[in-house]
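Sync notes, pocket subgroup
Present: LS, DG
LS reminded everyone that the earlier model was apo-only. Rerun requested with KG4 included. Inputs:
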Amino acid sequence: MLVLGIESSCDETAAAVVRDGREILSSVIASQIDMHRPWGGVVPELASREHLEKIDPIVNEALERAEVGLSDIDAIAVTQGPGLIGSLLVGVCYAKALAFSRGIPFVGVNHIEGHVFSVIFENPPIEYPALALIVSGGHTNIFHVPEAGSYKVVSRTRDDAAGEAFDKVSKMLELGYPGGPIIEKLAREGDASLVRFPQAKISDGRPDLSFSGLKTAVSRYIRENNIEQLRDGEQPSQAIKDLAASFQAAAVKALVGTMEKLAVELQPKTLIVAGGVACNLALQSAAEKASNKLGIPVYFPSKHLSTDNAAMIAAAGYFHFQKGSRGELAMTADVTMRLQNLDNEDDVLKKRKVRYRL
Ligand code: KG4
Ligand code: ZN
């Protein structure tokens, strides 16, 4: 069964053709990073305009590279939300029009669920229950996944997403956009033990995450230590590299530490770490260490599948299509779409008596 995946929730226009939910025949991504770079972040109006221009050629390229035509496609899977409204609408309207005009069934997919499915391509089959840490520029959540397609949020960020924190720290130092890969590269030459940033304390004791305090601590450190922003053509100083390494270490510790504690309580059979930040090698190595300690395998997507792509949307769409889900033409983009179809997150934690402070 061939699924055409379409993704346009933020600043990547992407299309992919995936066979039977696991075999990628093509995956094409048009990134808008260069266009948004001068503004230091995604400009929503520019993003949707660009999606509009790119979506048709990108879908055609995906079909060509897969050496199939639209008549070979059995279903279309499109990101329905969450994301930027203008961006999402381009993908959703395009997919619906294509589906209607060619008589192909379609399904709307939650973008975050797409990230969960991104690990199924290059890893052994996922064993359930699983615990999935989804870390990107827009989202940071840990999901308890008792079986494929069932999700319970067991940890969420109270403020910024982890990727957003990387982007903001990079912006503070005028290092460039997006910040994640830049900070990671600098951190490799820095001393992570130089600044010990505090870990967030969540006062109600929930295993949630918070990155705004860390961001403020970095900003204060920059001010108090007179670390100067980078000027054009200037190489980053050792102080900047040490700061990048220390910030990254604190962020990774918070993410992996929280996942580890939840894994001890919930005893999953698989750990999943996905989303744009998942290609950070410091995060991967800390997650691998935790995985060895816990004796639970951890799966990451490859780099191409970590950041936004349409193969993961096709994979999630295939799963729902197989379960009988079909989109209706009245379906529209859902900016704040949530990924939780099991009861309140408290229940699973109360049952396991999770009582700790971060
Ligand atoms: O999943 P994604 O492509 O888009 C969203 O759904 O948000 O994630 C993009 C985010 C950005 O914040 C970017 O800085 C971060 O992922 N990122 C990284 C790395 N590569 C991308 N963060 C840390 N280390 C990286 N190597
Ligand atoms: Zn994403």
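DG: The beta strands are 2-7, 12-19, 23-31, 75-81, 106-110, 130-135, 140-145, 152-156, 270-274, 298-299.
LS: Residues 111, 115, 136, 275-276, 308 surround zinc ion (ligand 2) (CB under 6 Å).
Action: DG to write up.
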